[in-house]
């Protein structure tokens, strides 16, 4: 989706007019595999915990009588609810946090820079000037490829941000083409040229 929106001019960057070209975020579909593994792990641990606790209770491991540990864990003949939900909390809480972190991550490409905003409790605002971009890489792990997604990695000369990763993008190749066009246009605006040299040791 292309947005033509004028951005305020920044001091020191007077070459060209800054406009918004693309806005996006990681696809939430990419978290589905995380939820699948988390639910599977929680269910397995839940079964092991409940069945194991029942077995240990039957052989008297938790003791007998009203003041015993068995009376606390099995007040009505069944495992107390807060123990039973522990596996679900332990496994699903990280998945929920990861999904929330993905949902608040946003990317904005302008004619001059790429801006990444992320973080839940502490918001991070990173940016890279397009004329510093050197190369691109489309990374497609197996689980991402099955969902039609890929990571776009951008290599730059920025010492503080040498590699920028745009996570879980649905049309990664098209996005790379869009960014490449903006990078080349920006380099032409600032009059930047690249030269490659080969050094051979004799």
Could you provide a short overview of the structure?
By secondary structure, this protein is α+β, with helices and mostly antiparallel strands. The protein has helices at residues 32-58, 69-73, 81-84, 86-103, 142-146, 172-190, and strands at 2-6, 19-24, 106-110, 113-118, 124-129, 133-139, 150-156, 163-169. Helix content is 39%, strand content 24%.
What does it look like?
The chain has 202 residues and is of the alpha+beta class. Helix content is 39%, strand content 24%. The chain is built from six helices and eight strands; from the N terminus they run E-E-H-H-H-H-E-E-E-E-H-E-E-H. The strands form two sheets. The chain has a five-stranded antiparallel β-sheet with strand order 1-2-3-4-5. A three-stranded antiparallel β-sheet has the order 6-7-8, covered by helices on one side. A hairpin with a 2-residue loop joins strand 3 and strand 4. Helix 1 runs antiparallel to helix 4. The longest helix has 27 residues. It is elongated.
Which descriptors would you attach to this protein?
6 helices, 24% strand, 5-stranded antiparallel beta sheet, single chain, alpha+beta, 8 strands, 202 residues
């Amino acid at each position: 989706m292309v947005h033509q929106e004028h951005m305020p001019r920044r001091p020191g960057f007077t070459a060209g007019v800054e406009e918004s070209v693309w806005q996006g975020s990681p696809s939430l579909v990419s978290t589905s595999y995380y939820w699948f593994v988390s639910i599977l792990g929680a269910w397995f641990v839940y079964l092991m915990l409940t069945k194991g606790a029942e077995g240990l209770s039957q052989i008297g491991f938790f003791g007998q009588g009203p003041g015993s540990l068995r009376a606390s864990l099995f007040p009505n003949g069944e495992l107390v609810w807060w123990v039973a939900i522990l596996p679900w909390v332990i496994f699903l809480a990280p998945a929920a946090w990861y999904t929330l972190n993905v949902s608040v991550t946003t990317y904005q490409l302008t004619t001059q820079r790429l801006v990444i905003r992320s973080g839940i409790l502490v918001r991070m605002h990173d940016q890279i000037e397009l004329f510093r971009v050197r190369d691109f890489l489309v990374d497609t792990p197996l689980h991402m490829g099955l969902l039609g997604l890929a990571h776009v990695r951008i290599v730059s000369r920025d010492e503080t941000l040498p590699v920028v990763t745009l996570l879980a993008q649905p049309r990664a190749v098209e996005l790379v083409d869009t960014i490449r066009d903006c990078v080349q246009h920006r380099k032409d605006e600032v009059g930047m040229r690249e030269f490659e040299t080969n050094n051979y040791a004799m």
